[in-house]
Amino acid sequence: MLIRTEIGIDAASIDALLRRSFPTSAEAELVKQLREDGLLTLGVVATDDEGQVLGYAAFSPVTLNGEDQQWVGLAPLVVDESVRKQGIGSRLIYEGLDTLNEFGYAAVVVLGDPAYYGRCGFKTAADCQLRCHLEGTQQVFQVYKLADDAFKGIAGNIEYSAPFNRL
C-alpha cells in the first residue's frame, strides 16, 4: 500500500471510493465542492499496486473566530471496506499531519470518534477553549497541534468552510 499526496488523476477514484463507502453522496459532493472552490488544502491517498485508491484523507481550511490562523480540518477520512483494520486510516492521518507540518500549518481539527483520533494524538478541543460552530459536535470535536505556539492566546469558535454547511 502506497500512501502519497493525491494527484489530479486520482479524483475519479476518490469520488468512487467516497460514494461506495458512505450511505449518501454527501462526502463525495463535499470533496468535489472543496476542489472546485480551491479549498482542498491537501488530499492524501492510499493506493494498491495497480494505483486504485483504497483510502483517502482530505484537509481544508478552517477559521478561528473568523480569522485564518493556518489551521485546517480533516474531513472526510475513508478507507475501503476491503482493507479496513490494517492501520491505513492512521497512516493517511500521519502522512497528512507530516505534510501539513512541513507546509507550516499550525493545527488540525477533526470531528470524529475520540478513541480513534486520540490514538493519533488528537485532544479534546474544549480542553483548549475551542468549540465548533456546528451544533451538537462538542463531544467529538478534537484538535492536533502542529506548531509549538498554535494554542498560545487562542480560544473561541472554529468554523469550517462553506461547503461543510451543505452537509
What's the gist of this structure?
Its EC number is 2.3.1.-. By secondary structure, the chain is an alpha+beta fold.
Descriptive account of the structure:
This protein has 167 residues and is an alpha+beta fold. It has one domain: Gcn5-related N-acetyltransferase (GNAT) (Aminopeptidase, 3-Layer(aba) Sandwich). 25% of the residues lie in helices and 33% in strands. The protein contains 4 helices and 9 strands. It has helices at residues 11-21, 26-36, 88-102, 114-118, and strands spanning 2-5, 42-47, 53-64, 67-79, 107-111, 123-124, 130-132, 141-145, 156-160. Strands 1, 2, 3, 4, 5, 6, 7, 8 and 9 form a 9-stranded mixed sheet that branches. A hairpin with a 5-residue loop joins strand 2 (42-47) and strand 3. The chain is globular. The mean pLDDT is 96.
Write down the CATH class: Alpha Beta
Helix content: 25-40%
Radius of gyration: 15 Å
**Mass-distribution shape:** globular
Estimate the mean pLDDT confidence: 96
Task: Write the CATH architecture name.
Answer: 3-Layer(aba) Sandwich
Q: Main beta sheet: strand number and arrangement?
A: 9 strands, mixed
Number of helices in the DSSP assignment: 4
What share of residues are in beta strands? 25-35%
Q: What is the CATH topology?
A: Aminopeptidase
Total E-strand runs: 9
Which class best fits the helix and strand makeup?
alpha+beta
InterPro entries: Acyl_CoA_acyltransferase (IPR016181), GNAT_dom (IPR000182)
GO molecular function, one term: acyltransferase activity, transferring groups other than amino-acyl groups
EC number: 2.3.1.-
Protein name: Putative acetyltransferase
